[in-house]
Design goal:
81 residues; Helix Hairpins; transferase; cytokinin biosynthesis; ATP binding; transferase activity
Length: 81
């Protein structure tokens, strides 16, 4: 998702002070990328720091996606049984 342009897509809807708990801003990856975009503005020209922050956001996206997937599988299992 990140290689396909996720950062640019989130950048288009990014508002630093907006709530990332409702609507489109709650989508998988958006809150994590918003955190990256907030921090990115505070780092002038330090590409290594930006990469580290981006990698932390990507790790959060992966972790949160796994949690969501497990919750969905648990719900499916509950419905089946």
């Amino acid at each position: 998702m990140v290689n396909a342009g996720m950062v640019d897509v989130v950048r288009q809807i990014f508002i630093p002070d907006a709530s990332y708990t409702k609507g489109i801003r709650r989508s998988i990856g958006v809150p994590e990328m918003a955190k990256y975009l907030r921090e990115e503005k505070n780092i002038d020209g330090d590409d290594e720091s930006k990469k580290m922050i981006l990698q932390a956001s990507i790790s959060s996206i992966k972790r949160n996606t796994r949690v969501l997937m497990c919750n969905q599988l648990d719900e499916i299992q509950r419905i089946i049984n």
